[in-house]
Amino acid sequence: MSSPIKYFYKGEETDFIIFVNSEEKVQDYLKNSNINNLTEAVSLFKVFANQDARGSEGELGEASKSQIENEFGPKKTTEEVLDLILKNGKPLSSTNVNKKKYSSTNDSNGAY
Fold this sequence. Notes:
The protein has 112 residues and is α+β, with helices and mostly antiparallel strands.
């Protein structure tokens, strides 16, 4: 089974990211687009964007209602937005989603 991955949607004004359980679950959802499959495919029912509103890197925060409405139209439910991102977005590398980044904690150890 695959590890969780980011799904990226390049918008006109804002780029969005969602987190999905696996590419296999997304493919299952795309074959049979119903709410039960959506809950199995998507890790979090939240849509994210970075501070610059462009790209998939950087500090992510939850996308504002206005960002979502400007991109997808008014009165879209979270489920409808997630569906559109899954259908029109693309998966990104899964290597950094669930892994903590560590750096050296004692660079001077042994260096005199």
